[in-house]
Design goal:
The protein folds into 2 domains: 73 residues, Multidrug-efflux Transporter Regulator, Chain: A, Domain 2, CATH 1.10.1660; 53 residues. It is 66% helix and 3% strand. It has 6 helices and 2 strands.
Length: 128
């Protein structure tokens, strides 16, 4: 199949497929005699794997590791679990940071009169 068909079948657009090839996340495609990329079902499965991992927020470096583990039939599930747990911990840290930002802004908004006066705790807090 060509790159357009691969994009359709995998749910990953052509531009990202080329990008993933350029950063060696996925192997470079075989080329036909005319120089066009040629892909197979294995490529669809690989890109679908990458798409699902990206949808869970895994960074590209961790996806490389996950792809390696996926392809290694002698892998241990403990290594996969370790990567997933590390990602969960990172996500929780981001959630905690976002919640803290939200709480701070919520407090500032509740203490702002929102009227015609120039004094504003939001501006005062940002200027500190």
């Amino acid at each position: 199949m060509n790159i357009g068909e691969l994009a359709k079948n995998s749910g990953v657009n052509s531009k990202m497929i080329r990008h993933y090839e350029s950063i060696k996340l996925i192997p470079k495609a075989q080329r036909n005699s005319s120089g066009y990329r040629v892909y197979g079902d294995k490529d669809v499965h690989t890109l679908s794997f990458v798409r699902r991992a990206r949808s869970l927020g895994f960074p590209l470096e961790e996806i490389k590791l996950l792809l390696g583990l996926w392809k290694n039939k002698k892998r241990t599930s403990s290594k996969v679990k370790e990567l997933a747990q590390k990602h969960i911990d990172e996500l929780q840290n981001k959630i905690d940071d976002l919640q803290s930002m939200r709480d701070s802004l919520d407090h500032l908004v509740k203490n702002c009169h929102g009227d015609d006066r120039p004094d504003c705790p939001i501006i005062e807090s940002l200027s500190k």
